[in-house]
Amino acid sequence: MPPRRQTTKGFARTASLLTAKIRKASESRGFAQSRLLTNWAEVAGEDAAAISRPVEVSYGRGGMGATLTLLTTGANAPVLEMQKEQLRARVNAVYGYNAIARVRVTQTAATGFSEGRVAFEHAPKKIEVAPDPAIRARATQTAANIGDESLRDALARLGENILNKQNR
Q1: Tens digit of each residue's pLDDT (9 = 90 or more) over 124-150
Q2: How far is it, in rounded angstroms, from Cα 76 to Cα 125?
Q3: Bridge partner residues of 66 (DSSP)
Q4: DSSP for 23-87?
Q5: Quick one: residue 65, left, alpha or beta (phi over 0 = left, psi -120 to 50 = alpha)?
Q6: CA atoms of 26 and 55, how far apart (whole Å)
Q7: Are the CB atoms for 92 and 76 separated by under 8 Å?
Q8: DSSP structural state of residue 100
Q9: Burial tier of 80 (Cβ tally within 10 Å: 0-12, 13-18, 19+)
């Protein structure tokens, strides 16, 4: 049987080239799981990821339980403070055990102001699309048999939204 022909032609996947460097950089900040950094939106959830970034995992002298430091802006700090326990549980689910004992919220990076720039992505702005008159008429006609006017209007708006989503 002839040897299998190589299909990469000398090229390597980017992930294989950067894996060691990413691991080294993340371990220097205490992150044993680089997935915590690379997939922060999955781990913390879209809402918490939009207002925070993991900065450091520091281990105490006793070695029992680490502290996860999260960077956020001043206005979002109270919101993140209320979500600390949920975030701790989600992060520990990534580690597979109770690795993180505490979550600390900071408004500046633990290393100093030069690295503490906050550049969180904002939610994309929704583009308002002009309503299609045919869809609006169809939704209004569907809800026409409802006796209560406010309920009829609400159902017509709901029907219009559903029909608009189906047409996209």
Answers
A1: 666 766 778 888 898 889 889 988 999
A2: 20
A3: 59, 100
A4: HHHHHHTT-S-THHHHTHHHHH-HHHHHHEEEEEEEE-TT-SSEEEEEEE-TTTHHHHHHTHHHH
A5: left
A6: 10
A7: no
A8: E
A9: buried
Instruction: Name beta bridge partners: 53.
Output: 71
Over residues 83-122, the pLDDT tens digits come to 999 999 998 888 777 888 889 998 864 455 555 555 555 5
The secondary structure of 111-166 as a DSSP string is T-TTT----PPPPPPPPP-PPPHHHHHHHHHHTTT-SSHHHHHHHHHHHHHHHHHH
Contacts of 90 (CB under 8 A, 6+ apart): 43, 44, 45
Angstrom distance (rounded) from CA 146 to CA 155: 9
67, 30 in Cβ contact below 8 A? no
Alpha-carbon distance 153 to 161, whole Å? 12
Rounded mean pLDDT, 28-32:
53
- What is the H or E stretch that residue 104 is in? strand 100-106
Dig out the tokens for 114 from the structure: 């030069």
Q: Which tens digit of pLDDT belongs to each residue from 63-77?
A: 667 888 888 887 888
